[in-house]
Amino acid sequence: MNRPYVIINCAMSADGKIASPTRKQILISCEEDIKRMYRLRNNCDAVLVGIGTILTDDPKLTVKETYVQHPKQPLRVILDSKGRTPPKALALNDVSKTLIITAKGNKKTYNQSNVEVVECDTDSKGFIDVTYALDLLYKKGIRKLLVEGGGTIIWSFLKNRVVDDLYTFIGPYIIGGKDTPTVADGEGITTGEQITLIINEVKQEGSGVLIHYHPV
Ligand SMILES: NC(=O)c1ccc[n+]([C@@H]2O[C@H](COP(=O)([O-])OP(=O)(O)OC[C@H]3O[C@@H](n4cnc5c(N)ncnc54)[C@H](OP(=O)(O)O)[C@@H]3O)[C@@H](O)[C@H]2O)c1
After folding, report:
1. What's the angle, vertex CA 194, arms to CA 172 and CA 11, rounded to 5?
2. Which of 80, 150, 186, 191 could disulfide-link 155, Cβ–Cβ 3.0 to 4.6 Å?
3. Domain count within the chain
4. Cα of 49 to ligand 1 centre, how many Å?
5. Is the alpha carbon torsion for 19, 21, 22, 27 positive or negative?
6. Distance of alpha carbon 173 from alpha carbon 208, whole angstroms
7. CA 216, CA 213: separation in Å to the nearest integer?
8. What CATH number is associated with residue 162?
9. pLDDT tens digits, one per residue of 82-130
10. Residue 82 near ligand 1, beta carbon < 6 Å
């Protein structure tokens, strides 16, 4: 199967959390990391999140001109099996195009001309089949895909072994909470099946540390 090159980027606290205990967005990155993230986004053909992130954070998923001059604005992709993306979600604004991938039979219509909804096969959990979605994106010309979260989506991509690069920025904070979202949520591994990573680079970035891994 042809698929895009897949990069995961996320920011976590020193205790591995990616949001507040109430799942709200919380400042973890520093200015240097935010700048790196926008440049990375601008260098990708598409940026992908799960519906969980759309509903909690309502991100625009665009590239800010403050950080990148003449941004090219990647395609925004939302994995949304049940068709829950609100018509007023900021990720549907007219700054870029948006592709909502939904399960067969759950297709909603949107008035915005920049929004496309496609139906897709689901996996055994009823989620969008990651392999099918990547094949679809490749056929649409996407060669470099940035996956930004949240934890359930990141887990799915890692579990399906379709990740080429993993960047984690570790901010100098403790958030705590046993149910607080982490980098990789989902059901987790069964015994002896850890997903092994090779460390490519570790560097201090502003107030935190950036680790670049390659999954084996
Ligand atoms: N710090 C960071 O870098 C960062 C970045 C992004 C998000 N976040 C945080 O992450 C949290 C949201 O994460 P989340 O885990 O609740 O939601 P999520 O990963 O954004 O979305 C998960 C949802 O996507 C849908 N989905 C469709 N296909 C899927 C697939 N193949 N695999 C997994 N999910 C699929 C499912 O809902 P349906 O069944 O309805 O389709 C699933 O419940 C928020 O607290 C947000 O603030 C942090």
Report:
1. 25
2. 186
3. 1
4. 7
5. negative
6. 9
7. 9
8. 3.40.430.10
9. 999 999 999 999 999 999 999 999 999 999 999 999 999 999 999 999 9
10. yes
Distance 66 CA to ligand 1 centre (A): 27
Distance CA 101, CA 161 (A): 20
85 CB less than 6 Å from ligand 1? Answer: no
CA of 52 to the centre of ligand 1 (A): 4
Q: Is the shortest distance between the CB of 50 and ligand 1 below 6 Å?
A: yes
Provide DSSP, 163-200.
-SEEEEEE-S-----TTS-BSS-TT---TT----EEEE
Q: Which domain holds residue 30?
A: 5-215
Q: Is the CB of 25 under 6 A from ligand 1?
A: yes
What pLDDT shows up at residue 116? 98
Reduce the DSSP state of residue 9 to 3 states and report it.
Answer: strand
76 CA to centre of ligand 1 in angstroms: 15
What's the rounded Cα separation, in Å, for the pair 64 and 51? 22
State the amino acid at position 188 in one-letter form. Answer: G
pTM: 0.98
Residue 184 CA to ligand 1 center (angstroms) comes to 10
Alpha carbon nearest to ligand 1 atom 30, residue: 127
